[in-house]
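#random but structural
TW: two for the price of one
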Amino acid sequence: MYTKKKYSFRDMILWTRVEIAIFFLVALVPTVLFEVVDLKWLRLPWTPIALVGTAVALLVSFQNNAAYGRAWEARKIWGGIINQSRSWAIMVKAVVTNEHAQEPVADGELLEQHTSLIHRHLAWLTALRHAMRETRSWEVFADHHTNKEWQERIQIPERDHSLEHDLQPLLSEGECQQVLQMTNKSAAIISLQSNHLRALKERGLVWEFAFLELAGQLQELLDLQGKSERIKNFPYPRQYASLGYDLVRVFIVLLPFGVIPEFSNIGESLTGSYPSLAGYFVWMAIPFSMIISWVFHTMQRIGIVGENPFEGTANDVPISTIARAIEIDMREINGEAASTIPKPLAVVHGVQM
């Protein structure tokens, strides 16, 4: 997620520099044909173009609202994961005790049980964030050259390390291999947690009512996982995305043919007052067309990059940063040494990953 107070105009220009060059050519060619080659018939009525622009603006607005809604829902889901993760660590420390044990165990073994349950939760979180960073066929952010530049600069952690590499410190060797063989690795880890809790209940290390509470938390975590997977695996409807993409380009191509005659008429009206300016005023259609084209295109492109909030763009939900913050909190709750607790992920170029 982008953390600067605002995007600088320079950033936006660099991000859309290829399109700006195209907009210049799209506006320049009709203007040259109209004014230099004297093809005065290259004109279209402004009213139908304005109607097309209105329809395109409504469609782009709908796309942006939908994209923002998906991103906001994703952020609420991961906010819920933060809360449930802290609750899990606190509950594990509080209820996995010798109070109702059939055969009390040493404090060291209790600590091992706490650590196993907390680290396995971190493994669940790791598997989930890796699943959210997997590429889907409809995720096309990196297909664009300038988008790829941004993605390479911020370096998503899930693309630097494999899931197996990140799971090994958190699970036993047997559990790690078992999880990696499963299709839904996050759900498999929740299943391991459930089996572990049942074993602790049978030994009396977890009171029956506390077991039900922890089982309820596992159910809530599965619910949050399912909601996150729903956003990841169900794209913004392609018919709206494709239609908006095509209509914006149609509008951009038509725009100069309506703008050029308008500026030509204005120039003619200036002949008496500003004769030196009147003959050149038609060329103002070029920057004017470019500005309008840039606004429509940029708004649509913002919607496109916001459609998939886990894709790894600068405006996505920063699940890597969130997961690291959760890990720090849970390890501290578990009383682990400060030297073993990782540092928060750095903000790179104003972006949380």
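TW: number two ↓
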Amino acid sequence: MEFGIFHEFLSTKSQSQAEAFAQSFAQIDAAEDWGLDVVWLAEIHMNPTRSLLSAPLTVAAAIAARTRRIKIGTAVQILPLGHPLRLAEETATIDQISGGRLIFGVGRSAFPRAYDAYGIAYTESQDRFAESLDIIKKAWTRENASHQGRYHSFENFTLVPRPVQQPHPEIRVAASQHDTYGAIGELGYPLFSAVRATPLSELAHHTAAYREAWTAAGHAGKPQAYLQVPIYVAATREAALADPHEGMMRFSMYRADLVRGPMSYETVLREKCIAGTPEMVTERLMQLRAEAHLAGVSAEINPGSMLSHDQVMSSLQLYVQEVMPNFK
């Protein structure tokens, strides 16, 4: 089972943006040293109280240069907001710098705010996403690529550099609504499942639709579903529930329009996150793995951005050294 962390590069308890960057890199360096499989980078625009990670490919290149083993993933690269040829160039460059450690997680984002700022209609996001992904795959895999589409057209484009991974870096697609799971399964991609839009109690139902669509489409190999979820680990149950309280409640309201009525902290703990001692977290992850046939998990290590650096580091160490070995 793959173990990762999801990072947004911000803590509201940091003294400055420079300190937030320094602390975030220190956490990723520790994850590399402790043996974590992958670090995932958000892409969040125009939200200074939540995240500094508006340029994830730049940060991915920095991580690639300062690490040697850990894989580097985007979770997710918002394809409609960038030019697909530029994205193909930059991701191939990161794959070169990292020696083939890039995982390309892609999506449309559930937040229209960035689309408004970029002057792109959110109603176009689905079509733009599909066209951009098609172009990026063409650029990665063909010596000379051409495309005539609704939003982009070009002739005889040769990508420089080429990705290290052949035929291209692994692509994973984000899912939020039930029909999206089936659509991703039909296309044959591994998927991310996040808990912002749907509760954990519905995860098995969604991933079942994904697996059924995969099988019906006749894809070779095994469908791969990955869960992205806030996780906080502490030595005692009391600390594990008390420390992240403020941040977990803040996290649960990031998409207030998707919340099905007011949620108590008990509901948030049950449906939107995993918090506890290493034994408690291990048990919950084993349950979710069995129910939803998960191939991996990515822990949001500072949900709501309200934990201190020391709290994040302590939780991260327990997650990697006390929880992860039970799944390897």
